Amino acid sequence: MLVIENIVTAYGKIEALRGVSMEAQEGRITCLLGPNGAGKTTLMYTVAGILHARRGSVRLQGQELVGKPSSEIVRRGLALVPENRLTFPEVSVRENLIAGAYLRLTRDKAGVAEDLERQLVRFPRLRERINQDAGTLSGGEQQMLAVARALMARPRILLMDEPSLGLAPLVVEEIFRTIHELNAEGVTVLLVEQNAHMALQIAHHFYLLEQGRITFSGVPGALQEDEVIHRAYLGGSGASSH
Amino acid sequence: MSDYLIGVLSNIGMIAFLALSAYVLLVTGSISFGQQAYFAISAYGSGIATAMWGWPLWLGMLWGAALAGLAAALVAVPTARLHGLYFAVATLAFAEMVRLLLQMLTWQIDVDGTLIGPMGSEGFREIRYIYAHDISAVQFMLLIYGLLGLVVGGLTLMERTRLGLALRMIGEDEIPAEALGVNVAACKIFAAALSGIIAGIGGALYAHLITYIEPALFNVMLGVHGLAYGLIGGLGTAVGPLLGVVLDIGFLESVRAFAGYRMIVFGGLVALLLIVRPRGLLDEVTVHRIVRRLIRSDHVAH
Ligand SMILES: Nc1ncnc2c1ncn2[C@@H]1O[C@H](COP(=O)(O)OP(=O)(O)OP(=O)(O)O)[C@@H](O)[C@H]1O
Ligand SMILES: [Mg+2]
Fold this sequence. Notes:
heterodimer, A: alpha/beta, Rossmann fold, six-stranded mixed β-sheet, 9 helices, 10 strands, globular, B: mainly alpha, two-stranded antiparallel ribbon, 13 helices, 2 strands, binds adenosine-5'-triphosphate, binds magnesium ion
């Protein structure tokens, strides 16, 4: 569904992605693991049109995304839940959710209202806090809000950048359950994680990204879990460095 | 109404445009120390149009505000990617450049036997349109408040639209805004142009009310005041900056006891407010509460 080929993205002279190729198959959960600074967020931003690739191609259902503005990419069915920058803190939960449907706000009021209701059924805790500023929510609630907001765009593929970051284990489990449910409903998921243990439980396929390059691609179980964990946290060439 | 009161109210009204122009940028998360440049560009532009070219006031004001809007949009193209201190310094540098250029601008033409036009740092005299056309101080004040009402009303309506939501999203965090499909660069250039036009309306009114302008009037302190009004008044609604202006000009400047100490009191007030109410008197939460109360009392009334 999403095919990334030889993507090179640089900040000035520094190439953060040095020819990344990977794929997220329709209906599956694909996981991208890698240590800090590997380039995971850079890849997500590049795919979502926030950063611009120097070279390479990203195709969503056969259509090229590189060079397209983010609005076009969202319209084609791709939504990103960014790392760390989850919500608009001084904006109410309701407006945060509505902002998720930004591109069809004026054309499809009824549809937006319907989708809003659907998200509030899925995340009842957001309904209780609907008029609160998003910044007053707990970390887990903000993560839920960010997911709900991304779903307001009716994505076919959902990109999530480290949704477990800084959350307590119980909350992380809840998030992963949600991802699993969404996937069961037919949403393709590309999940960036450092929590290899949790990610490998729900992934159908995973990649390792180290220093701007894909260094492994396979199904969970293809590598020893402790090696994956080691490489996801620390980088380096895995077993040989033990 | 006494002349004094009309003078104070007219001042409040004109400076309010500057405050609103800074507010528009504050909403999008940009702190500009250079809004006085657009005020100046339009003051000179509209003054040249009416006093030198003999244009009617409305056309001169339109021209001045359009020039200011255009200048602001052009400045926004390279600065839209700057944040925080970098944006503040860039806008300040631009405004100082404008002021220095105005100091060098000498261009006078013969209008009915007198030489009229800007004379560098000596300033630009005889912008006499409203006296030549017998527009009274009260009428001009009504013009100021009429236009102010339009701008505040327009901004309030805009805040409820998708564009308004986009500007606030950008003000909070550009990355998720972009991720949701907002064209951040275009929105920022639009906001800058709008802020330039609003400052420009104020500048044109100012030039015609006081009839004499000079580059030194448009120094950084003017911009700092415009910015401070938004910070004091609050970022929850376009009415916030007006409250800031009324507090400063209407209260501090008018109360005799503060004479000579106004800047000290003003500075202290800004510092105090930023500590106790970082998002101003009328911040989002307060506005939300007031609006809900209004809606409720509306229900009761029906
Ligand atoms: N705005 C930037 N300017 C310059 N370099 C950057 C910028 N953002 C990221 N980098 C660099 O690019 C590389 C990849 O960063 P990126 O944020 O994509 O890593 P990541 O895999 O998401 O890491 P983390 O797990 O910490 O989120 C790092 O070396 C980082 O220092
Ligand atoms: Mg990251």
